[in-house]
């Protein structure tokens, strides 16, 4: 790592742990709070109002990664949080630095990813005066964080950061922010921050009520057509192995949501993969026809449910969630179980009177798998199909390979045609759907898991939104393979225009995009181009072998569309497998 | 691709309503909006009111009124929020409120809770005696008078104040201000302790 703050100090390797110097300023207290919370990395960009904090970071062992844009800092912190399970941290200065973080904070909020954002602020005496680089950061971010703090005092600023850290990680994870006026961080203090603790008003339910669990277990055991719907909350709660045990013991088919990808192995016979707008036909058929759904850690997003009136219409719903406000928010829960997913799964496991009698149902699910396989056309004379590139890459890599994406068609192909078997290997922007997430997310993911392979599937549109992040990947020598599934269009929009706007392709075709292989080389990365089926594996192999960031510019069939598809607000059982079906539903 | 076309597929019999509730033919559930009085204890610090009101606007809960003021404890304030929503919306409002970090506790007050609001009504000063007579009918009193205007204070239920304002219209109402309801549970129950 190239930066001063990240160079390990030599004497430390020989000396045993030394007493920490006492803090003398608010900024040092901020950094001490991060050290106490065992922060390894901070992603950020310098600036006037945050300078005292950076100055205090100079003396710390925390690694700092300078990003090329603050949006990238918040996405990298987000991905770091997704992969490690611990909060990712990002820094920005006041005003434009803070507003540039906003997209990443909103993204983290929608996906319940643990992130803490520390922003510089103008000195307290100027707050409210429209001073240079002032914005009301707390006001802007309050609706998209679990809580935004305004640090008012040098003596308490360390505690504010500690609390923000604990809060980001507690219960349903999510982003928190602390706004740091320059005089507060510069101000003298000898107060050491306390250990990270959540505010007293924040109560986290641990276990569900036993009686409720018993009732729910009995309903599930009675079911003829049971399914488990596993959401992102299963991964957040580190409940994947509990889920696997439960599903296998009671032989219940498992569907995941898109954020739940990786919570259950897609190569297992009970897996129906993921459901929703572009989920598998078999998962959507099972959702439509189940009579009892055990839904865990999902907020029933409309991309999953389609119209709620047609969502799992026959099913009694058992809803497990750590956030009481998720219960019956979108889909009514017949059996609400509020608690940590891992604990509740264990409770349910013990409470099940027997396995449901569901041989017929499992056969039916298998029939759907045979009837609606995930497929695409590959005649050799056609331009390269994106699905083929994803599939080949998936076959060549180890199970724990981490996949990051931008947002669009490529994101759907990367989720459909890659085989996920491990939690925390799928890193994507779900709730907010943020184009540009991929490039910086891959940086955060790689630093979080340096021993795992990291690949980012991106669209040409998404890639261009945060391409400057390549400079960071090059500087930090991060071994990431970026694959741009290049269709010279914002393809997902083009697909909707073709399907629902009579093919009027307003502002969706990008025939002026740069040559991404050359762009990569200009940044100091390796660049490759893929144009046909001939050298797909060979090129992927070369890019993987290169020790540093590489970019494969894959020129894919510009007319390729994503299927299956449940039209927005539609009925999950009425998915289209091709363009013709769209006219029928 | 193989597999039956959309209209040939296995179809479920059930249905849900727009609130995501299964429509059980024996007990069809629809929720009409009703009025609820939510009372919340919150940390008394800058930004709390905006956090709460932003929550309500973001989630599209219709606020009838919202009042806030200090309690006996200097660090806490109490909010009374009147909303009109169908049952699931009221439940969501409570849960979302409870999620906010500065919110200490939330409770929906029962129907018979003591509810009061205050109105100040400024009317023309031409017939002060008549104004006083009407104010008396509503247990109100004149709190300010000049040659051109009389300002009357009325406290009571929303209905009573609505009626009073209606009655004052005969005197050319110049200005009105209303506080919205403040409410407390009857009996010994408080937000801090259940009895
Ligand atoms: C920041 C942002 N702006 C706009 C959109 C709307 N949008 C959703 S998908 C999409 C197309 C993405 O294009 P590209 O990244 O090239 O991927 P493709 O669909 O072609 O694979 C657009 C514009 C968005 N999701 N995010």
TrEMBL record, chain A:
Entry keyword set: Amino-acid biosynthesis, Branched-chain amino acid biosynthesis, FAD, Flavoprotein, Magnesium, Metal-binding, Thiamine pyrophosphate, Transferase
The UniProt record lists the keyword Chloroplast: no
Domain Thiamine pyrophosphate enzyme N-terminal TPP-binding: from-to ranges: 25-138
Acidic residues: compositionally biased ranges: 10-20
The protein's Enzyme Commission number: 2.2.1.6
Thiamine pyrophosphate enzyme TPP-binding domain location: 406-553
Top-rank taxon: Archaea
Domain Thiamine pyrophosphate enzyme central residues, every copy: 213-348
Cofactor needs: Mg(2+); thiamine diphosphate
Group of enzyme by EC: transferase
NCBIfam families: acolac_lg (TIGR00118)
The protein's name in its UniProt record: Acetolactate synthase
Species in which this protein is naturally found: Haloarcula marismortui ATCC 33800
Organism phylogeny: Archaea, Methanobacteriati, Methanobacteriota, Stenosarchaea group, Halobacteria
Name of the gene this protein is made from: ilvB
Automatic annotation (TrEMBL), chain B:
One Pfam family, short name: ALS_ss_C
Record-annotated membrane-spanning stretches: none
BP term (GO), one: isoleucine biosynthetic process
EC number, UniProt record: 2.2.1.6
The protein's assembly and partners: Dimer of large and small chains.
NCBIfam families xref list: acolac_sm, PRK11895.1
Name of the protein in question: Acetolactate synthase small subunit
Native organism: Haloarcula marismortui (strain ATCC 43049 / DSM 3752 / JCM 8966 / VKM B-1809)
């Amino acid at each position: 790592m190239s930066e001063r703050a990240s160079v390990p100090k030599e004497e430390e390797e020989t000396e045993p742990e030394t007493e920490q110097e006492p803090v003398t300023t608010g900024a040092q207290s901020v950094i001490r709070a991060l050290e106490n919370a065992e922060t390894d990395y901070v992603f950020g960009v310098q600036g006037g109002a945050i300078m005292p904090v950076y100055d205090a970071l100079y003396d710390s062992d925390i690694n700092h990664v300078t990003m090329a844009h603050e949006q990238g800092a918040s996405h990298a912190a987000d991905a770091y949080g997704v992969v490690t399970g611990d909060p990712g941290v990002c820094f920005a200065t006041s005003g434009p630095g803070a507003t540039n973080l906003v997209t990443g904070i909103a993204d983290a909020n929608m996906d319940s990813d643990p992130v803490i954002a520390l922003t510089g602020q103008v000195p307290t005496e100027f707050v409210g005066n429209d001073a240079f680089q002032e914005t009301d950061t707390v006001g802007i971010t309050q609706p998209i964080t679990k809580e935004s703090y305004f640090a008012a005092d040098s003596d308490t600023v360390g505690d504010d950061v500690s609390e923000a850290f604990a809060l980001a990680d507690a219960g349903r994870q999510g982003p928190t922010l602390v706004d740091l006026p320059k005089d507060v961080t510069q101000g003298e203090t000898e107060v050491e921050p306390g250990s990270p603790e959540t505010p007293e008003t924040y109560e986290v339910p641990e276990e569900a009520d036993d009686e409720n669990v018993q009732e729910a277990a009995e309903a599930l055991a009675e079911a003829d057509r049971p399914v488990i719907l596993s959401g992102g909350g299963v991964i957040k709660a580190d409940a994947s192995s509990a889920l696997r045990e439960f599903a296998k013991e009671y032989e219940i088919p498992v569907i995941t949501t898109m954020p739940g990808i990786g919570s259950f192995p897609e190569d297992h016979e009970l897996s129906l993969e993921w459901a929703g707008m572009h989920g598998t036909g078999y998962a959507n058929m099972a959702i439509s026809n189940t009579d009892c759904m055990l839904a865990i850690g999902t907020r029933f997003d409309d991309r999953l449910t389609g119209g709620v009136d047609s969502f799992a219409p026959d099913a009694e719903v058992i809803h497990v969630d750590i956030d009481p406000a998720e219960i019956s928010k979108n889909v009514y829960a017949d059996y609400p179980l509020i608690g940590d997913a891992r604990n509740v799964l264990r409770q349910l496991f013990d409470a099940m009177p027997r396995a449901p009698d569901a041989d017929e149902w499992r056969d039916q699910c298998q029939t759907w798998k045979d009837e609606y396989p995930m497929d695409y056309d590959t005649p050799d004379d056609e331009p390269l199909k994106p699905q083929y590139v994803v599939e080949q890459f998936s076959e060549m890599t180890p199970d724990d390979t981490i996949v990051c994406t931008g947002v669009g068609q490529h994101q759907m192909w990367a989720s459909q045609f890659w085989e996920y078997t491990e939690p925390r290997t799928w890193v994507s922007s779900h709730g907010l759907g943020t184009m540009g997430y991929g490039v910086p997310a891959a940086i955060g993911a790689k630093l979080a898991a340096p021993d795992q392979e990291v690949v980012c599937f991106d669209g040409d549109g998404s890639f261009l939104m945060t391409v400057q992040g390549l400079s960071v990947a090059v500087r930090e020598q991060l071994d990431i393979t970026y694959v741009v599934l290049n269709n010279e269009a914002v393809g997902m929009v083009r697909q909707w225009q073709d399907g629902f706007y009579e093919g009027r392709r307003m502002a969706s075709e990008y025939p002026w995009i740069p040559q991404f292989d050359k762009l990569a080389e200009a940044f100091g990365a390796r660049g490759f181009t893929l144009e046909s089926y001939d050298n797909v594996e060979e090129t992927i192999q070369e890019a993987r072998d290169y020790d540093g960031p590489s970019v494969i510019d894959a020129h894919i069939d510009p007319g390729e569309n994503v299927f299956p598809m449940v039209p927005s607000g539609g009925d999950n059982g009425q998915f289209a497998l091709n363009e013709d079906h769209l006219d029928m539903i | 691709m193989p597999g039956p076309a959309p209209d040939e597929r296995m179809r479920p019999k059930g249905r849900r309503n727009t609130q995501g509730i299964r429509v059980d033919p024996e007990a069809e559930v629809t929720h009409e909006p009703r009025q609820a009085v939510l009372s919340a204890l919150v940390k008394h610090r800058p930004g709390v009111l905006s956090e709460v009101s932003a929550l309500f606007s973001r989630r599209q809960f219709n606020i009838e009124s919202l009042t806030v003021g200090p309690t006996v404890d200097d660090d806490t304030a109490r909010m009374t929020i009147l909303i009109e929503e169908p049952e699931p919306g009221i439940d969501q409002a409570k849960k979302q409120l409870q999620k906010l970090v500065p919110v200490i506790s939330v409770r929906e007050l029962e129907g018979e809770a003591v509810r009061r609001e205050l109105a100040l009504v400024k009317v023309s000063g031409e017939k002060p005696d008549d104004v006083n007579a009407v104010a008396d009918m509503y247990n109100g009193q004149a709190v300010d008078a000049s040659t051109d205007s009389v300002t009357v204070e009325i406290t009571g239920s929303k209905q009573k104040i609505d009626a009073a304002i209606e009655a004052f219209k005969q005197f050319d109402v110049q200005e009105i201000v209303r506080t919205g309801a403040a409410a407390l549970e009857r009996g010994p129950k408080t937000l801090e302790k259940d009895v």
